[in-house]
C-alpha cells in the first residue's frame, strides 16, 4: 500500500486514480489525496456516531418489545418511538428545488434498469437499452402465448407479434380514421396527444407521453415484406435511465473489486467502455451506441439520446473497505470512498458534449440511509466532495432509496435534508421488509413472507412514497420510483401486473433486463403518469399508524407442513444466492427458486429470507435442529440446480468445508445480531476468505 496524505491506499487504487482518473481533471495528485484525507477526517466520526445511534435505537426498541408483549398497542408504540427520537417532527410544507436535472429523471416517465457495475457487458447492454425492438421482445418471450418454432424465422409467430404490436399502437397512438393494421405506410394521421415528429430515412418517429416510437419501414426485410406498409419493426424508447450498481448487486470486497467497478464507471463517463466476448463461436465487441439522427417534419436535422441516462449507486453508511486504511489503522468507510471516486470519475462526463448528463449533473444513488440525520450527512459529504473537485454546489445529485423503516416513517424530513440536490426517491420492498423484521425482531413471530404483502404497512409504504413525494414537489423535478420485477422469464405476468406502477403515479419502476424495459415501456404510453400524479396530489397521505403496524402472526398456529414449506423456501433461496456470491463473486444473477423458476436475486432478497428464519428461531416457530436439517436438504437441491456449472462448488457433501454453506448458516443463526439485519458484513468476511484461499 502507498502512504498518501496520511492514508494507506491500495497500490491498484492509487495507480488507477493517478493514471486514469485525474489526468484531464486539472487536479494534482497531492491535492486530491489531501482533500480525500480531509474528507475522511471530517466525516468518519460523523459516520461512526450515526451507526452507533442505529444500534442504540435498536437496543431500546428491543427492550420495549420485551416489556410490551403482543398484541402491540399502536398508540403506545407510536408515543414510544416519538419520545425515543425514532420519529421526528414533520417539516413545514416545502418544495424541492434541484437544478439541472436531465429530463429523463424530471420530465419523462419510463423504465429504469439496475445493473452490476462489475460486469462491463451487462453495463453496455443496459446503457444501450434506451431503444428496444418491440418485435424482438415479443417474439422471444412469453409476453404472447406460445413460442417460435426452431429453424429460422417463424412466420406464424411473427404474425402473432405483428398483431399484438398493431393493437398496442391502436391503444397508445391511434390513427384518426383507421386501425394500424389497415395502414398503408403513408404519413400517419395521428390522434392527439400523439405527435408525428420526424423521420429516419423511410421510418416514422412518433412522440407520446414524452417517449418516442419509431416505425421501421423496410419492404425488403423478412418481416417487412409480409406487411402491406412494409413495417419491419416497432422500436420503443425504453430504459430512460440505468443505475450502475456498486451496492446490492455486486460482490466487491477488496481493492481489486472496487477498482474494477470504478474502471467500468470511468469507461461509461468517458464514453469509451467496450467489451469483447465470444457469442455463437464468434468474437464480438460491444461499445456504447451513438445518438440517433432524425429530421423533423420540416426537414431540419435533430438527434435523440442513444443511451440510457446513467446513475451510480454508492454503498450505504455501514460498510468499510480495505482499499483505504485510515491513519488510526481502521478501514475507511466504503460509502465515503465511493462518493469521492464516483464523483471524480463523473467529472469526465461534465467535460464532454453529448455525453451522459446533458444538463451537467452527476447522479449518485444513496441506499440504506436511516432517517433524516443520515440524509443530512450525505448532503454535507456531497458538499465536501464538490469542494474537493471544484464543482458548483449541488452538481452532485442524490437519489434517496426509501428502503429502511426509519426513512419511510420520516420521509418528508429525509427529503427536506437533500431538497436542493434530490433527483429521486425509490421504494425497495425487500430491503424495507428486512428492516421491518429486524426492527421488530423481539415483538413476536412474523407472518409468512407471502402474507406480509397483504398487511397494512406495505400498502401504506407504497402509497406514502408517492403521496409524500408529490407533496414535497417532486413532480416535474425528480423521479418517484418503484421496485423491481424479479422474474425475467415471466413477461406476460409483468405486462399484466407492472402497469400498476405508473398507475400509482410513479414515473419509473425497475426492470431486470433490456427486453423487460422495452415491454414495460408500453405501460408508459397507456398511462399518463403526470396526469395520475395530478390526481394523486389531491389525496391525503396514508396514515403513519398503518405504516407502523408490525406484521406479526399473533394468534396464528400454522400446521407443521406450512412451517416446513416456508423454511424450505427461505433456506433454498438463501443458499442459491449465497453460493454464487461467496464462491464465485456473483452479486446478482438469475437464481432458480425452490420451484425452479428463475428469479433475479440480490442482497435485498437475502436480507428478508435470513431475517425471517432468524425471527422464527427467536420465537420458537422452528428449532435450530430443524433449520440445520433443512439447510442440508436444500443444499442438495441447490447443488442439483447448479450441476451444469463447471465453476460451481457443491455444498451438501461437505458443508463444514463449504465457505458458502457456512456463510448461509451464519446469516441465519447470527441474524438477530447483524446490524439492521444486513447481510454484507458476513458475506464480505466469507468472500474474503475464499479469495484469500481460506
What does this structure look like?
The protein has 694 residues and is of the alpha/beta class. It folds into three domains: 345 residues, TIM Barrel (Alpha-Beta Barrel), CATH 3.20.20; 105 residues, Malate synthase G - maily-beta sub-domain; 132 residues, Malate synthase, domain III (Malate Synthase G, Chain: A, Domain 4, Up-down Bundle). It is 45% helix and 17% strand. An eight-stranded parallel barrel has the order 3-9-14-17-18-19-20-21, surrounded by six helices. Strands 4-8-7-6-5 form a five-stranded antiparallel beta sheet. It has a four-stranded antiparallel beta sheet with strand order 1-2-15-16. Helix 10 links the parallel strand 17 and strand 18. Helix 9 crosses helix 10, helix 10 packs parallel to helix 12 and helix 21 packs across helix 24. It is globular and about 75 Å long. It starts with a strand and ends with a helix.
List the topology elements:
Layout (H helix, E strand, L loop, with lengths): L1 E3 L2 E3 L1 H11 L7 H39 L6 H11 L18 H4 L5 E5 L3 H8 L3 E3 H6 L15 H18 L22 E6 L2 E6 L2 E7 L13 E7 L3 E5 L9 H16 L3 E6 L2 E6 L4 E4 L5 E4 L4 E5 L6 E6 L5 E3 H17 L11 E5 L4 H19 L6 E7 L2 H5 L1 H7 L4 E6 L1 H11 L9 H4 L3 H16 L7 E6 L6 H7 L2 H4 L4 E4 L2 H13 L2 H8 L7 H4 L12 H25 L4 E4 L5 E4 L1 H16 L5 H18 L17 H11 L10 H12 L3
Parallel strand pairs: 3-9, 3-21, 9-14, 14-17, 17-18, 18-19, 19-20, 20-21
Antiparallel strand pairs: 1-2, 2-15, 4-8, 5-6, 6-7, 7-8, 10-11, 12-13, 15-16, 22-23
Helix pairs in contact: 1-8, 2-10, 8-9, 9-10, 10-12, 13-22, 21-22, 21-23, 21-24, 21-25, 22-24, 24-25
